[in-house]
């Protein structure tokens, strides 16, 4: 049977990971500054993570959500304590797209409306409703376009205000930091303005923290550089450190739970809970959120010193380097010449860096030195295959 073609693939086969490094089948070591699309939060092969999942699968790997699973409450308690969102309620699912699907569904249940405001360069997933509010028409099938949506300029409120005044908006969905869009940080005034406008016009504010959550920004959630309290927070990626986990945090002041509104077969299963509680344990014990801020600040400052860089954007260990010209060949040279994984974005000029949160300043220096050398010898006309997710 042939596999369905999804991405063009690099000719590299990783077989092992430890800390901030992965190893291919030939034994070559690579510094991982991409974390498999921001998924690897606590590093590869962390012993506590491996132990938690191994012990759980030895006892019980899965049973349905029709029975008691105390691991879900343990996860909720640890998540609430570490994130500061203990007043929210947790629904567990399997991916970021699924998290946003359920967030949009709840918003429509609450308001009785269907129109959604999103933002230019937004990426919220590839499934039905989530892809309809993703600013990439090429991945939207006709069946995905069954409700009205608008894409407004990111970090600007004027047009959003005008649209909300019409009274027909179900929800506003926004990334705390646009990831695939090229690492654009939602500023404080913008998020606080959105929150006020949504409250005034009875629209649901959904904060998509799928890439920027679980400590990556130097806060548990990136919106926490403000004082807003979103109606729904969606999360995934680094939540399970590679195990498929997603979820939404639901503000109970806005939504009243009722049986049957949401449901899932695999969400919150025993292994998913073991993986996520292990991540939360390590984030706390190893001070990884604080490290993301400290090392991220250092990374941003050092990257801005590189000659030839147009702009450096980001927060914590979610960083975009805008070169002002396509970075495909740069990424290829970094991967095959310097053995450093980096990422791309929907902006062909932006290199996206999403390393594990335990990254060290020494490893930042390794990247800065390697990138400076590669850039000095770079031919802007070359091309490379691309991966975006």
Explain the overall architecture.
With 389 residues, the chain is α/β, with parallel strands linked by helices. It has 2 domains: 14-43 and 287-376, Aspartate Aminotransferase, domain 1 (Alpha-Beta Complex), CATH 3.90.1150.10; 47-285, Aspartate Aminotransferase, domain 2, CATH 3.40.640.10. The protein contains 11 helices and 16 strands. The strands form 4 sheets. It has a 7-stranded mixed beta sheet with strand order 4-12-11-10-7-5-6, sandwiched between helices. A hairpin with a 4-residue loop joins strand 2 (21-24) and strand 3 (29-32). Helix 9 runs parallel beside helix 11. It is globular, with a radius of gyration of 21 Å. The two termini are 25 Å apart. Mean pLDDT is 95; it is low at 380-389.
- Global Rg: 21 Å
Largest sheet: 7 strands, mixed
Count of distinct strands: 16
The second-level CATH architecture of the largest domain is 3-Layer(aba) Sandwich
CATH fold label of the largest domain: Aspartate Aminotransferase, domain 2
Q: What's the domain count? A: 2
What fraction strand?
A: 15-25%
Which segments are poorly predicted (pLDDT under 50) over 5 or more consecutive residues?
A: 380-389
Q: By CATH's scheme, which homologous superfamily of the largest domain applies?
A: Type I PLP-dependent aspartate aminotransferase-like (Major domain)
Helix and strand pattern: EEEHHHEHEHEHEEEHEEEHHEEHEEH
- Head-to-tail CA distance between termini: 25 Å
Strand order of the largest sheet: 4-12-11-10-7-5-6
Question: For this structure, what is the CATH class of the largest domain?
Answer: Alpha Beta
Please, what is the average pLDDT?
95
Share of residues in helices: 25-40%
Helices, by number, come to 11
Structural class: alpha/beta
Shape: globular
């Amino acid at each position: 049977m042939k596999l369905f073609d999804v991405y063009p693939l690099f000719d590299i086969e990783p077989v092992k990971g430890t800390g901030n490094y992965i190893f291919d089948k030939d034994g070559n070591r690579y510094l991982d500054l991409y974390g498999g699309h921001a998924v690897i939060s606590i590093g590869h092969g962390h012993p506590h993570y491996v132990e938690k999942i191994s012990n759980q699968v030895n006892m019980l790997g899965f049973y349905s959500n029709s029975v008691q699973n105390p691991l879900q409450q343990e996860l909720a308690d640890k998540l609430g304590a570490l994130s500061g969102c203990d007043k929210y309620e947790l629904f567990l699912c399997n991916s970021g797209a699924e998290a946003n699907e359920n967030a949009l569904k709840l918003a429509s249940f609450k308001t009785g409306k269907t129109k959604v405001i999103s933002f230019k360069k937004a990426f919220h997933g590839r499934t039905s409703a989530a892809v309809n509010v993703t600013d990439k028409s090429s991945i939207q099938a006709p069946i995905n376009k069954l409700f009205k949506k608008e894409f407004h300029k990111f970090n600007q409120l004027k047009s959003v205000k005008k649209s909300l005044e019409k009274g027909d908006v179900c929800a506003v969905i926004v990334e705390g930091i646009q990831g695939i869009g090229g690492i654009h940080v939602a500023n404080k005034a913008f998020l606080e303005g959105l929150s006020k406008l949504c409250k005034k016009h009875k629209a649901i504010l959904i904060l998509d923290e799928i890439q920027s959550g679980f400590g990556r920004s130097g806060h548990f959630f990136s919106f926490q550089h403000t004082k807003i309290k979103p109606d729904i927070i969606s999360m995934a990626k680094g939540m399970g450190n590679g195990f498929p986990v997603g979820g939404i945090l639901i503000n109970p002041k806005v939504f009243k739970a009722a049986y049957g509104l949401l449901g899932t077969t695999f969400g919150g299963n025993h292994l998913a809970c073991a993986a996520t509680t292990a991540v939360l344990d390590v984030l706390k014990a190893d001070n990884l959120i604080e490290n993301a801020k400290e090392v991220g600040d250092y990374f941003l400052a050092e990257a801005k010193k590189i000659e030839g860089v147009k702009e450096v954007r980001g927060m914590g260990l979610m960083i975009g380097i805008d070169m002002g010209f396509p970075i495909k060949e740069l990424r290829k040279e970094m991967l095959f010449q310097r053995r450093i994984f980096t990422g791309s974005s929907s902006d062909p000029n932006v290199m996206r860096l999403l390393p594990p949160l335990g990254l060290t300043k020494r490893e930042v220096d390794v990247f800065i030195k390697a990138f400076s050398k590669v850039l000095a010898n770079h031919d802007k006309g070359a091309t490379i295959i691309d991966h975006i997710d």
